[in-house]
Input
Amino acid sequence: MQGKLLAGLMIATITGSATAQSTADAARSPPTPASVADVTSAIVDMDAVTVTGVQPGPGLWKFHKGDRVLWIFGTLSPLPKNITWVSDDVNAAIAASDVALQGPGLAVTADIGLFGRLSLLPSLFKLRKNPNGTKLQEALPADLYARWQALKVKYIGRDRASENWRPVFAANELYQAALEKNGLVESGIIGPVLDKAVKAADIEKQSTTFTIKIDDPKETLKEFNASTLDDVQCFRKTLDRLETDLAVMKTRANAWAGGDIDTLRALPYDDQSLACLSALTDSGFTQRLGIENIQAKVASQWYRIVDGALREHQIVFATVPISQLLKPDGVVAKLQAKGYEVESP
Output
């Protein structure tokens, strides 16, 4: 998810479409070899393995009020990369529905054509880099940089390119590499299956994405490239998760694949992507674009479109992250407050 959030918010500014702890004045001197070795020794290889083969996934939540029915399927990311998800229940629910709503999301758009995008490529290459040539080591506290070095060797290798990147983008690169090495993927498991079922049912697929339009993408990129971000907390939380949560991440992915709702409900879920999104959306740069309170806006957009779809159609199929279905104050509670009765899987 983290990769999608970052790409959706900033990289889409160039392409035209897309699906806090401050940096302390701590010493920024390079860590000694001993300090890196100490951090490396604390990184334990996880024994948990990801499941493979055909898997059923979780069941559906059914919400109904009067003659209106809303089927909701809970998605998860990351998932085991070597599974094939097959769900007869999901296929049947989609076939019985009048419309299929995509999950909540964020998109950034700009009215530029192909040549406009090409003209922005030089700015695109600068997008991930720290302003003024600042190195990653200079942007981070020494202890955090030492942890980064150890994890980087483990998952990325000795590539030097990311040493020039902003912490939020370096963290995402590390996270993606760690997922790959641990048999997990952020996308490609659920979407194609849902698309195939929607096509077979010959029903409309409707976006619920909250869209931000950029009027002057060239100037926007120029301003972003010169700005600083408060993204050390994003970086720290990403490292925390990779050092402590990978085994739980695998267990969670396996539980989703096997449809084990009780295990999913019991497992902790500390997602660093909110901190990383906040690093971007809470900056003065993005607030000048009207990109504040973005999480609330994305959620509000989803509920508004769900309400509209149920006024127009008798049966609606929708998806949301399963964490939003399992949390006490999440989707289930909010729809019950709207008068819906719920049947959980």
